[in-house]
Amino acid sequence: EADIYQTPRYLVIGTGKKITLECSQTMGHDKMYWYQQDPGMELHLIHYSYGVNSTEKGDLSSESTVSRIRTEHFPLTLESARPSHTSQYLCASSDYRGGTNTGELFFGEGSRLTVL
Amino acid sequence: LAKTTQPISMDSYEGQEVNITCSHNNIATNDYITWYQQFPSQGPRFIIQGYKTKVTNEVASLFIPADRKSSTLSLPRVSLSDTAVYYCLVGLGTGRRALTFGSGTRLQVQP
């Protein structure tokens, strides 16, 4: 059973508000990811991290920012939310150390953001 | 990063075997092939992973030819609950390589 948690699950806010989506994992994984997915569409990687103090932008340009101060925590922040940010945001983690480890991605249940 | 190509959608009936093929022509020597399943409003979940030949677990089989430029996920005797989107992923996220999903295959199982 995956131990990766996202909060809030659902958030409805007004334009211009600052929001932070939380993601925490208790598996000690080094690698963490944020994906953005609109209903019925594919997942787009927007941020990833290979460890503490490491963050990179993904394939899809995003106005959001992330931080990785602790291994288990990878929050995503939008300084000023807009309707175009309405989407589902999925956090994932993985750990690959070779051998029989599959490097499997473990996903949280997602945070569905609606910006009015 | 290896790009993957899958059919956009497939239809099947309960009890049938379903085979979904993924093309990955520029797969790297160290890349593994992993398949994920995603239900609406949930994150994807791991189904199966392989490097070459055939891998089987309790839910699926994965066939990989010798040239590794494609792979086929086989779901035996599907049920309505197998209706989902299936993604093929190539790579392992080792080193500094990120994991990017393709468009996926939307499988619809009919009664």
Précis, in short:
Chain A is mainly β and 116 residues long. In chain A, 0% of the residues lie in helices and 47% in strands. Chain B is globular, with a radius of gyration of 13 Å.
Provide an overview of this structure:
The complex is a heterodimer of chains A (116) and B (111). Chain A starts with a strand and ends with a strand. The mean pLDDT of chain A is 91. Chain A is an all-beta fold. Chain A is globular. Chain A is 0% helix and 47% strand. In chain A, the strands form two sheets. In chain A, strands 2, 4, 5, 6, 9, 10 and 11 form a seven-stranded mixed sheet that branches. Chain A has a single domain, classed as Immunoglobulins (Immunoglobulin-like, Sandwich), CATH 2.60.40. Chain B is 0% helix and 45% strand. The termini of chain B are far apart. Chain A binds chain B through residues 31, 33, 35, 39, 42-43, 45, 48, 50, 56, 58-59, 88, 90, 92, 94, 96, 102-110, 112, and chain B through 32, 34, 36, 40-46, 49, 87, 89, 92-94, 96, 98-104.
Low-confidence stretches of chain A: none
Mean pLDDT of chain B: 90
The order of strands across the largest sheet of chain B is 1-9-8-3-4
The number of strands of chain B is: 9
- Terminal residue distance of chain A: 35 Å
Count the helices of chain A. How many? 0
CATH topology of chain B: Immunoglobulin-like
Task: Give me the CATH fold name of chain A.
Answer: Immunoglobulin-like
Largest sheet of chain B: 5 strands, mixed
* Alpha-carbon Rg of chain A, integer: 14 Å
Overall morphology of chain A? globular
SSE layout:
The complex is a heterodimer of chains A (116) and B (111).
Chain A: E1 4-7, E2 10-13, E3 19-25, E4 31-37, E5 44-51, E6 54-57, E7 65-66, E8 76-78, E9 87-94, E10 106-107, E11 111-115
Parallel strand pairs in A: 2-11
Antiparallel strand pairs in A: 1-3, 3-8, 4-5, 4-9, 5-6, 7-8, 9-10, 9-11
Chain B: E1 9-13, E2 18-23, E3 33-38, E4 45-50, E5 53-56, E6 61-64, E7 70-75, E8 84-90, E9 105-110
Parallel strand pairs in B: 1-9
Antiparallel strand pairs in B: 2-7, 3-4, 3-8, 5-6, 6-7, 8-9
